[in-house]
Design brief:
- About 35% of the residues are buried.
- It is globular and about 60 Å long.
- It has one domain.
- The protein contains 9 helices and no strands.
- The chain is mainly alpha-helical and about 220 residues long.
- The protein has helices spanning about 5-35, 40, 55-65, 90-120, 125-145, 155-165, 170-180, 185-200, 205-225.
Amino acid sequence: MYLSPLGRLVAIAIGLLMAITIHEFSHALVAYRLGDPTAKRMGRLSLNPLVHLDPLGTLMMVITALTGIGIGWGKPTPVSPWNLRPGRRLGMGLVAAGGPISNVLLALALAVVVRVLFVLPLAVPAAVVSALGIIIGLNVGLAAFNLLPLPMLDGFHILMGIISGIRARWAYDLSYQLERVEPHGPMILLVLILLPRVLRVDILGLLITPIYDVLSRLVGLVLSV
């Protein structure tokens, strides 16, 4: 049988812990490898979920996971950009990329597990496969959400890292303008989250769906092998 409502909640809880923990741990690991020990000194280079959970971000992931794609965030990983060996902007871009990449890799690894379960001559309960599917979906959702090029999200820092490597006047001007917008990231994100309630226009959904679809197809390739 498939998951009961309680079983679904348990799968979501496990998926949240796995997705957020590996995401923030990967930020800390990449930063440490690039020369910044800040996260390690603050106990964030750890696979202990409790040091990475952000109350609001976790609550949002629970709510959105129950209604569709699970999107949210963990407690921001402390990074001192000036310690990063590739430079401030490029270094932050690489650190930011570590989070979503880790979620995609975890989703792919779990997809391999699901595929193996289908191939092996074992009577695997459908509930187990359903739970793994939920955990895969949460990781894909967290990766897709964080890849949005919005201030406060990983995609913004990845974009800034890419722009920093372009030696052109327009790139410098664009970087300057984006830096001015960056402090308003939380407000921009809040407006995008609340907009569907007010104007029935889900801009956030329109932005995240294409990314989610691409990542889902990537995972689907593993399941179809």
